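Journal club prep, notes for RB
We'll compare a predicted complex against what the paper describes. Inputs for the nicotinamide-adenine-dinucleotide case:
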Amino acid sequence: MSDLMDHQDFHIGVVGLGLMGASIASAMILLGHRVVGLSPVVSEADQTAAERIRRTVRQAIARGLVSGDEERYMDLIEFSNEYRSLSSCDLVIESVVENLGIKKEVLTNIEEVVSGEAIITTNTSAIPINILQQFLKFKSRFFGMHWGEPTFTSKFLEIICGDQSEMALGEKLQQIALAWDKEPTLVRKDIRGFITNRLMYAMYREAFYLVENGFASMKDIDRACRNDGGVWMAFCGPFRYMDLTGLQAYYHVMKDLFPTLDNRTRVPDFIEKIASEGSNGVSTGQGFYSYTQQEAQAWQTAFEIFSFEISQLKNEHPPKALKDLS
Ligand SMILES: NC(=O)c1ccc[n+]([C@@H]2O[C@H](COP(=O)([O-])OP(=O)(O)OC[C@H]3O[C@@H](n4cnc5c(N)ncnc54)[C@H](O)[C@@H]3O)[C@@H](O)[C@H]2O)c1
């Protein structure tokens, strides 16, 4: 990871300190940036943000990912409820709730207080960048910046250009993200779902199809994914994988398989029912599977440890010499 002093002069604003905002703010201070953590409204999540950020810093030190003491990092962040605190920020990352009206209001407020040079980004998961961009006066310096949890250790970062974003600034953002030790992708034309959500949702849809039509159980689908894609996807993407395993076979299989894949456009009844009952998975104890409080905690902890360990392993593969060639 970069030296703490590297990034002191590049100020970052993080707006909305919920799950993702607090995580991004932690990642930024751990990289040595000065950060303004802004909570336009103080939700329950925002109230615990400082505590959650401190916990991440403590874990990063304990795991040897950064050196130095906790306070040195915590001193880099200033918490605020006033938009004007963002005035000296070079880059602002909006991460408020996924709601078009709220994002519109928050982005407009950000734009009013930052300098004409500042880059404004949104961590939206699914709202098209072109839709949000139309609300801003200085459209060329607005981008999507889609983060993955845990943001400090995850190499994932999608940078998305809207139709009116300046490509050179998008490329600059990509360079900044490389300096953060990410493996950023630049989505040059806005498309709903960007890259990974489009790929993953195609898979989710097929998973529902197989369960709803009695071909396999949820457990069997989870097991198959984990032992097939789950293994190679941490090593390479689909194109490299097809090269590695002989693309001729894929070419022939596609001809027969594609016409049989699910292509419905409506949300599957199965998730409609579970979601409308208020279930949210491990956080509510009920999702596709049921969890006691103890089981929910055990799954969350196991996932946290696994994410950390797999990212360590992933960093070592493929060897650097091969990565540099691609
Ligand atoms: N959770 C994920 O894994 C994930 C991954 C990538 C991107 N995202 C995106 O990140 C963004 C934040 O998601 P999250 O999971 O952190 O949500 P969250 O619910 O944990 O946090 C939402 C934040 O929005 C703020 N907020 C709520 N109402 C507001 C209002 N009226 N005005 C201003 N702020 C308001 C809250 O105070 C809180 O800080 C969303 O756009 C989401 O789609 C989430």
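Talking point for the session: DSSP finds 15 helices and eight strands in the chain.
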